């Protein structure tokens, strides 16, 4: 191989490996300000919805410890990584929306708990560089909960307030995968949308 050909082939090798690296290390969706606060995520309703839980007040002596309906999302790159490996990547971000029960009377579907309004937003981010001392490297945030104003940049909350319960009770790496059928079905399968249990 002459020098020119060699140069071209090693250069294209470099370009190829740069693409590979950027392919495997896709940027985290989590954005921080210079005070290290997590910025309010913008388009998380375009992320992957993994599960919804309902803990109605009337099954909890009139007031459930958590807001009655909650929907959880994960960012698409981290979902793709989970689907491939069954693990949460460095940079993974989840968002949980809190929703009130709007009504109990169904139009022909049966009575139940129908979604009312969005009344809260929480998030978690896994980042081994930013949070080397947090359990599982996960940090937890509140953007608003009922009765508090929306903040556009949120502080990492103390471990005892959030992470401890997750560490104790969540099935996989601090995340409640036992309540997220979308994650359970896709785990390390390379597939989405598997409806029937295997
Ligand atoms: C008493 C236990 C407990 C505490 C304390 C707790 N959580 Fe959770 N968290 C849960 C459960 C259970 C779920 C599963 C979804 C649901 O039921 O809301 C969850 C899910 C989440 C999720 C979705 C991703 C995941 O990890 O499953 C986020 C984000 C979250 N919590 C944020 C917080 C924040 C922020 C705090 C602190 C203010 C907090 N949590 C404190 C029990 C807890």
Looking at CATH, the homologous superfamily is: Cytochrome P460
Percent of sequence in beta strands: 15-25%
- Which hetero ligands occur in this complex? heme C
**Structural shape:** globular
Helix content: 10-25%
Unreliable stretches covering 5 or more consecutive residues: 12-24
Looking at CATH, which topology would you report? Chalcone isomerase
Helix and strand composition category:
alpha+beta
Over the alpha carbons, how many angstroms does the gyration radius reach? 21 Å
Largest sheet: 5 strands, antiparallel
Instruction: Give the CA-CA distance, first to last residue.
Output: 53 Å
Describe the model.
- This protein is of the alpha+beta class and 198 residues long.
- It has one domain (40-184): Chalcone isomerase (3-Layer(bba) Sandwich), CATH 3.50.70.
- Helices cover 23% and strands 24% of the residues.
- The protein is built from 4 helices and 7 strands.
- The chain has helices spanning 3-24, 76-85, 163-169, 181-186, and strands spanning 38-39, 48-54, 69-74, 93-103, 114-126, 138-144, 153-154.
- A 5-stranded antiparallel β-sheet has the order 2-3-4-5-6. It has a two-stranded antiparallel ribbon with strand order 1-7.
- It is globular, with a radius of gyration of 21 Å.
- The termini are far apart.
- Mean pLDDT is 89; it is low at 12-24.
- The structure holds heme C.
- Heme C (HEC) binds at residues 53, 66, 70, 72, 94, 96, 122-124, 140-142, 157, 161-162, 165-166, 170, 175-176, 179.
- Keywords: Signal.
- This is Cytochrome P460.
- It holds the Pfam family Cytochrome_P460.
């Amino acid at each position: 191989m002459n020098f020119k050909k060699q140069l071209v082939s090693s250069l294209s090798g470099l370009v190829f490996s740069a693409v590979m690296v950027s392919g495997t290390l896709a940027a985290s969706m989590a954005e921080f300000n210079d005070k290290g606060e997590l910025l309010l995520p913008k388009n998380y309703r375009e992320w992957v919805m993994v599960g919804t839980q309902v803990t109605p007040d009337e099954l909890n002596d009139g007031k459930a410890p958590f807001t009655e309906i909650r929907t959880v999302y994960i960012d698409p790159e981290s979902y793709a990584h989970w689907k491939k490996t069954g693990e949460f990547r460095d940079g993974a971000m989840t968002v949980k929306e809190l929703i009130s029960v709007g009504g109990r009377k169904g139009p022909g579907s049966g009575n139940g708990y129908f979604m009312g309004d969005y009344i809260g937003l929480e998030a978690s981010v896994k980042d081994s560089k930013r949070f080397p001392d947090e359990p599982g490297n996960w940090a937890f945030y509140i953007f608003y909960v009922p009765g508090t104003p929306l903040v556009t940049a949120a502080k990492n909350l103390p471990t005892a307030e959030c992470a401890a319960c997750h560490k104790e009770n969540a099935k996989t790496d601090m995340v409640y995968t036992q309540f997220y059928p979308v994650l359970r079905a896709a785990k390390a399968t390379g597939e989405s949308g598997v409806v029937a249990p295997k």
